[in-house]
Structures are given as structure tokens and as C-alpha cells.
Structure prediction request, 816 residues.
Amino acid sequence: MKKTILKQYAQLLVEMGVNIQKGQELMVFASIKQEALVKEIAVAAYKKGAAKVSVEWGSDALTKVHYRYQSVKQLGKVEEWEKAKLQHRVDVVPARIYIADEDPDGMKGVNQKKVAKARMMSYPIIKPYIDQLENKEQWCIAGAASPEWAKKVFPGMSKSKAVEKLWEAILETSRMGEDPVRNWKEHNADLRRRCDYLNSLNLKSLHYEASNGTDFTVGLIDEARFLGGSELTLGSNIEFNPNIPSEEVFTSPMKGEAEGIVYASMPLSYEGELIENFSVRFESGKAVEVKAEKGEELLKQMISMDETAAYLGEAALIPYDSPIRKTGILFYNTLYDENASCHLALGMGFTNVIKDYEKYTQKELQDMGVNDSMIHVDFMIGTRDMNITGTDKDGKKIKIFENGNWAF
Amino acid sequence: MKKTILKQYAQLLVEMGVNIQKGQELMVFASIKQEALVKEIAVAAYKKGAAKVSVEWGSDALTKVHYRYQSVKQLGKVEEWEKAKLQHRVDVVPARIYIADEDPDGMKGVNQKKVAKARMMSYPIIKPYIDQLENKEQWCIAGAASPEWAKKVFPGMSKSKAVEKLWEAILETSRMGEDPVRNWKEHNADLRRRCDYLNSLNLKSLHYEASNGTDFTVGLIDEARFLGGSELTLGSNIEFNPNIPSEEVFTSPMKGEAEGIVYASMPLSYEGELIENFSVRFESGKAVEVKAEKGEELLKQMISMDETAAYLGEAALIPYDSPIRKTGILFYNTLYDENASCHLALGMGFTNVIKDYEKYTQKELQDMGVNDSMIHVDFMIGTRDMNITGTDKDGKKIKIFENGNWAF
Prediction:
């Protein structure tokens, strides 16, 4: 890829993505394959006045070795210095950029039960730090092409050609174009208009129907809003874009109110393994039955990670004609695929969907109906013929989606 | 490179290099270019029973960006969590493997004064932790070919050919051969015999002479021994090989006793920059004059890092016919070049050269004449015609080197 474009993309992530502030720290999480991009991100951040950029390099190959050979106890341990590092994050509130470039099959063969156990051990230790940072940090997840991922998306091509094509798709769906900053401002304004309309309807529930068998109703929280595009940090009011790309308008549904069955419309890459052709049946808000042609065990394990992992944390609306779906590419990566299709997420909800959420404690926000869990896993349900109907507090039916696209 | 050979090399570093113990932690310091080797090191260490392998990935490209844009204050800062991490190292005493693959010119253009200032800030904070670990850890520095380094060593070749050739040289000089473990056992026994003989002589000083103008005398410490090859950890008596390759027999000379001039016989790569064609003149143990055709400023800065950086910490004897010199390759990397030539080191000495060093405090060992400094920089002085003569406590002269090689 041309260095000038990589530089522009890095600038987009730093300026529109996390909107780094003068004197702020930036943490970048990236695989060791992304040195060129990470370098440009660091330069862009420093030029915007970042005091320090630190990089947490990852290697799937090494992670796999650790998973295989370390004991569960060792894997689940959080050392004192790691707690001190989390405390540092709480103290300085750095911005965070995550670069997603994983091989969708990269963790094939890993003992996922062992990994899950370890995660269950470390989660309660890490959670108090994360809770203190809730809604306070600017963060941004964005993609970068790696050879392994590119070959999965374009299996027929040579490695270098596949990487080139994947970069093209990443840049296009990230709305790079002529003037990326302007593109994102316009896009955010558009998403904001959709949200404003939806929020004016005071919906109590959404009903989803599609020819694949999906027939599902989810309850909404009175105080909750639909959000989309850029967000604001709690307290410091810094505007940032948590996902690049992002096409979704989303909310966190009412915990305990979900009935019926949904059929996945795309494979789900979870913990480096694919779950394919699956369905989830809900009763009283909880996933009570899952079926999958591939990866059913992993799916079952996922919804058992904690007591609330089987409840919903997100309902997101994306038209079937979204620019990402229109590329015709199945990315095998949630960041892209979730923005190509209406989706739900199992696990943790977003407390910032609640109006004036800053006035409440996390506990109070959860009591209103926002789910809390150690997982948050999006899965795609949108189809070409999906209809979604809202019901307002007076029982009035309002068409939200018709044949896969916005009905308004 | 073939995977089987990489695996064998990793095994050599893990088993002979640090000799990892069951239940021990291993820290690996490597550039992000060395994923394949680091993975094999991790597997080898786990198979030997390591409880945890952690990797500190480095990127020269990023380091350069940090040096350029961070303030000195920021660069020199040691955060609380970083102190906690050092404390963890003191508590668990992990083994450490360093993979050297640096581009010898990789830090060209960096403001070395700024970097030096930052290092002077952080050093006093880090030093108490390092002191507690002195002689207790197994560690090993070994090489790996990177494209940048390979192109510097073999500038006429294509990148892939140069990498292949450099790997060949690394494996050969690391005595991989048929049975690497046996090779190293034999080699260590040979070095031990050299040391035993030298130690039987009770030398008070060494005088170096060569046709390039070198005419130099260094005093030796009564209680100090010559060491070479494998060493033992303090307390736990674990045998390890700190350098792969290693051809040297060395000691730490008497601080304050060095007179005359030495001419470097090879370029020195320091902080990612080359210092070439230089000389150092000593008076009363101290480097009082340095001259260099290239990098003189950097050399001057180096010996000013602290008050003891201009004193010697090491005198090492390597025959001109060493297998590394015989490859005919100038590696531009101290690990290799120092093992191709007699060398001296400015800065910190090794307290474990003192007989029964475990009975003394660090302070007492330094009072005997072992220099302490924040730097330890080897530079090569051996030539084809170098003669070295020892003087024992009765004033008797004993030939140690004749025409560049062992005289005994």
C-alpha cells in the first residue's frame, strides 16, 4: 500500500477515531504485522500533541503457544504489576486504538474451555479498573489487512493480491475518499438524524421477521436512546468514533425481554474460531437454546461465560444496502460484518444509551435494564427481506425496516 | 531457513543458553521481525517446564519515533507500574533471552544527546532493582538475521540471499553443527582450561602491543579470575551461557590502572550508530582522549554517561584465529565482532570475576577494583600481529598472545 494513504488512514484513526488531545497518552493494540501502520499512528498522534504513545504488540502464534502450554492458573493470573498498569490507565485515562487484523481461523485447535476458564479467573480482578474507566476513554477499533486474514476473505488470490484487495475494501468502507474527515462528519450527521427520529417514537419493543425463520421480539428500555456514529466521553466531552467503519444505529435492550428465534445471516468469528449457520432461541430475555452447524460447543460455552452472557446487550439496525454489505465481501471480522447487517449482541450492554447516564451509578443503570457481562459478542441477523416493526407505548405499530432497509 | 534448524537453534538457546528450570519464568526480548524464532523458543521453554514465557517485542521504527517526539522528561520517566514490573522480576528471578538482530544503522539521525539524558534520568530508578538481581539470573544474548542487518553485512546481495547468508553465519558461529549441546560442552571445557592456566599465573598486569600503534597496559585485580564460557547463577548454581556465540576469556581489570593508547580494529555499533577508526588514550585508568574518523561526538558522549563510564570494565582475550574472525565477516554487531577479536569494555565490570564474590557486598567488590557504571560497551582492539605480555607479582614477564593468538 502507498505510504501516503497509510498516513491518511492513520490520521483518520488518530483525529476522527480517538480525537487525541494535547498532552494525552495513546495506547495502541496491534499485531506485530502492523508495524508500518502503527508507526504512522504514532507519528500522527505525536503531531497532534500526544505526550506518549505506547504499543501493546500481539502475536496470535505466541498466544496459541501460551494457551497450549500454560496452566489455567497461570493463564488466569493477574500479576501485581499488571494491576499497577491498569491503575495507571485509570489515573491517566489514555486514548486507545485497537487494530483488528486477525486471521479468522487463527485460534483453530485451541482448547477454548481452558481459555474461558482462565478468563473467568482474571475477569473479576480486572473488572473494578474497567468499571472506573466506563465511558471516560476515547477508543477506536479499526482494521488493517494481514496476509492470513486476506487469504481467508479472498482465498482464490495470491497473498499479495489478497492483501491489496483487503486494504482497498478497508479503506473504502472506512470512507477514506477525498476528504475522510469531512466524509465522517457528514456520515455522523446522517446517523444522528436516524437516531433522533427513532428516539422521537418512544418505542417499547421491536419485532423482527425474515423468510429464514427469524421471528423475534425484543423489549426496549424507556430511558434508553438509539445512538450511532461518534460519541462523547463522560466528563470531558471529547467526541470520538469508537468504530471505523460504523454504519449502525443501536441501543441496549431491556434485560429479560426477548422472545422467539433468530437465525444468523453470517458466520461469527469468536475467539479465533468460526461459528456457522446457527440460531438462538430466547425466552424471557435469555438464550435458552442454540444450534449451529459448526462451532455449536463454542457457542454454548460463550453464553455460559457468566450468568448474564445469555442475555442481550445490544440491538443494532443497519440497512441491507449499507456500503459494507454492498461490497459483497464477507469479512469474517465482526467490525466489518456487523456493519453490513442488523445484529444483536449477547452479553454486556452500553450504559451510555441511557439518557443522562452520567447522573446514575453503574448499578442504577443496570437496574434500569442494561445487561452487564464479561462478554459482548455481536452476531449478524439482517437479511434482504427482513422486516422490523416497532411498537410504541400506546401499542401503535410503526414500520422501522422494510425488505432489509430503513422504512423511513 | 528450515523450521527444523530454527527449532534446534531455539532449543540451544533455551537449554544451553539460559538452561531454563522447571516452573521458572522466561522473558524474551526480541524485535517484532523474529516471531518465528521466538515462537520456537517459547515452545522449547514450555517443553522444559517453564511456567510462563513472556515476550517484550521491540520495534526500532517505533523507538525512533518515540525518541524524536517525546520530551526528555517523558522518555526518562519510569512509571509506578514499570517499577512494579521490575519488582516482579526481582521476586521471581526469570531467565532472560535477548535476540540481537538490529540494523547497525537503525538509529541514524536520532538525537543521541536527548536519549542519553533520558537514560541518565531513568537509570538511578532502575538500578536498585538490577542490583538485587546481580549474578542471580540466567541470561543469554543470541543473534537472529533481520533483512536490514543482513543487507549491511552483505550489501551486494539481494535481501533474501543476504538473510540466508547471515543465518548461515549465525548458526555456524553458534556451533550448531551435528550435536550443538555436545559442541558447547566441549567448547566450554576448552575455555575453562585456558582460564585455569591464566589464573595459575597470578598476573598483575597485561601489556598490549600492535603495529597499528596500540601500546597499552592494564592492571589486574589480585582477587579476580579469568572467566569464559558458561557461568553459574549466584545461590542457585544453575549453569548458563550468557553469550551464544562466545569465544572470549575475560576479566574485569583494576579500576584506575590503565595507561597508554589503544586503536580500534573494527567499527563499533553503539546506540544504533557506527563509530569508526577510533582510538582511546588512558591515563590512570581513565579514557582521557578519544579520536574517531566517524562518530567522535557519540564516543565522547558515551564516556560521559556517568563519572565511571570512562573507566574500563572488561579486558577480553580472543585469538585472531577465532572461528568468528575466520568467517571473514564483519558483523557490525558486538555479540559477534567482540568474539572475533581481543576487546576492552568501557563502563561496568563483572563482580563475579572476583573469587568467592558471593561472600562480599556489591560495594566491597567495587572497592576491590571492579568498575560500576550505567554503560558497558565493548570495543575491539585485536589484530593479526597483537602481542600481549603478562607481568606476575614477582615482575616476571609471561607471553600470553603472540602474533594475535594464544602463546600457550
